[in-house]
Write a structure and sequence with these properties.
Elements: E1 5-9, H1 19-29, E2 34-37, H2 47-62, E3 67-69, H3 79-91, E4 94-97, H4 102-109, H5 114-123, E5 127-131, H6 132-136, E6 141-142, H7 145-151, E7 158-159, E8 171-174, H8 193-202, E9 209-213, E10 217-222, E11 227-232, E12 236-240, E13 243-247, E14 252-254, H9 255-259, H10 279-286, H11 293-303, H12 315-330, H13 334-346, E15 349-354, E16 357-362
Parallel strand pairs: 1-5, 2-3, 2-4, 4-5, 8-9
Antiparallel strand pairs: 1-10, 6-7, 9-12, 10-11, 11-14, 12-13, 15-16
Helix pairs in contact: 3-5, 10-11, 10-12, 11-13, 12-13
Length: 365
């Protein structure tokens, strides 16, 4: 029986840098029968807009038409609807899921054992490609990011789909591993920070490792070749027993090396020297509806402050914010578009919408 590819993306599933990764996966499949699962963002009010954005990316950038599979509530679905959803997943050879909430997704998927259908896709030589929030669900356990990072719950684990076991790996998956949006506080390790990740790791069963994946980085686990390949912008990390193996960008490692890993200890990435995003990169983050948007918005507002020491010309920044506002409107993210306008006004910048577009001016006094 042929076996397929498990693809895990740290973030940036629709970013230009990930297009090459998707093409590489599609080249191994031949005739692509792809589906998009909307479950991770099924709790949001803009589900149709999110789906349209994802489908448009695959059609425009990759010339691949994904079938949208709608399933947002196990409790409100019938047994027939659940069966139709599961059958559609099994018949695909490329299954994609991305942004949203990992805990929400698991609440819908685990009761109907969707992990069995995803394993079937892999066993038949297909690809399962999960990014960001969805990638968190792939491991033996899952970090409930929203509950810890936004609500303030004490660190705890949820049961995951454990698809990694199909590759002979015993691990949890942590995307956004090198995130640095906190600036003066630690948002690495998928926003929960190094301290809380180490607390969680101490609660794992002995022998359970952590697979950390940097942002805009892809990990391809080839079940036939028994290898793990790292592509994209940065690196991945295999953490086991307090030790860390860096899986460098562009490298391919036998899975057996991870299973028997015993190297010397290395440190987790920290926020001591945060990367500085360009205005365009910040604007791109804001134009999404993931939980990075509010952090990117705050960074842009701080950069656009004027007067006093360190004064900067706000022209380019404000224009980028207005571009992001237009992008948010086109994506149906009207709340984010309003937040962008409010942020400019709070920064002393008046925005005027007219038939020819938006103009702005620094408020006098």
């Amino acid at each position: 029986m042929s076996r397929g590819i498990l693809v895990l993306l740290g973030s940036g599933e629709t970013a230009p840098g990930m297009t090459k990764v998707h093409r590489e996966v599609f080249s191994r499949l031949g005739d692509v029968r792809g589906v998009n699962l909307d479950t991770p963002y099924g709790f949001q009010e803009n589900v149709p807009q999110m789906t349209d954005k994802l489908l448009d990316y695959f059609e425009t950038s990759l010339h691949v038409d994904l079938q949208p599979l709608h399933f947002t509530s196990f409790a409100d679905s019938t047994a027939v609807e659940q069966s139709i959803f599961r059958q559609s997943v099994r018949e695909a050879n490329y299954v994609f899921a991305g942004p949203g909430s990992p805990s929400y997704a698991l609440k819908q998927w685990l009761p109907m054992s969707l992990q069995d259908d995803l394993r079937g896709v892999l066993q038949n030589g297909g690809a399962v490609c999960f990014s960001s929030a969805a990638a968190l669900t792939i491991g033996r356990k899952t970090i409930p990011v929203y509950e810890m990072y936004k609500v303030g719950d004490a660190p705890f684990w949820l049961d995951g789909l454990d698809l990694v076991a199909h590759a002979g790996l015993n691990c949890v998956v942590v995307p956004h591993f090198d995130n640095q949006e906190g600036s003066n506080y630690d948002t690495s390790c998928c926003y929960i920070g190094k301290r809380r990740l180490e607390l969680l790791e101490s609660e794992l069963e002995p022998g359970t490792a952590t697979l950390g994946i940097d942002e805009h980085t892809a990990v391809l686990i080839d079940l036939e070749a028994q290898t793990i390949e790292v592509l994209g912008k940065a690196n991945a990390y295999w953490r086991s027993g307090g030790d860390v193996l860096i899986l460098a960008n562009g490298t391919t490692t036998p899975l057996g090396e991870l299973q028997s890993f015993e190297p010397e200890s290395l440190e987790l990435p920290t926020n001591e020297a945060p990367a500085v995003l360009t205005p365009l990169e910040l604007a791109r983050e804001i134009s999404t509806t993931t939980f990075e948007a509010s952090e990117a918005l705050a960074s842009l507002v701080r950069l656009a402050q004027t007067g006093g020491d360190g004064y900067i010309d706000p022209t380019d920044l404000v224009n980028r914010i207005l571009e992001a506002r237009i992008a948010a409107r086109k994506a149906g993210s009207y709340e984010i578009a309003d937040q962008l306008r409010d942020a400019l006004v709070a920064s002393g910048i008046d925005v005027h919408d007219g038939p020819g577009g938006s103009t702005w001016a620094l408020r006098q006094g």
